[in-house]
Amino acid sequence: xxxxxxxxxxxxxxxxxxxxxxxxxxxxxxxxxxxxxxxxxxxxxxxxxxxxxxxxxxxxxxxxxxxxxxxxxxxxxxxxxxxxxxxxxxxxxxxxxxxxxxxxxxxxxxxxxxxxxxxxxxxxxxxxxxxxxxxx
Length: 136
Known about the structure:
single chain
């Protein structure tokens, strides 16, 4: 039943992009470690894993100024209420881009999940090429 195997591959590939961490991480590990879902699912598991890595690095870079604002506050202990308020204002200013990035991450992964569930191919610059080399 190649049709059933193809459907399982699409299902597993789509689950690799579901923007809920426990689901996509379990799906990625299941596909890669148990070697399930065929080449289509393996390709998308690797591509999703690489995309998560890129998004994680970008997220850390966005969070860095937020962390530095609080580190600066606590190096001047005891701090005045004005210092505390200024640090929170800076932190909030850095949290807004992080929240926007989180929404973008969710929407991108949701879109990719739908594409993979439907068996459609899509290209992510650089990441698709790397995933193709890993899976071969």
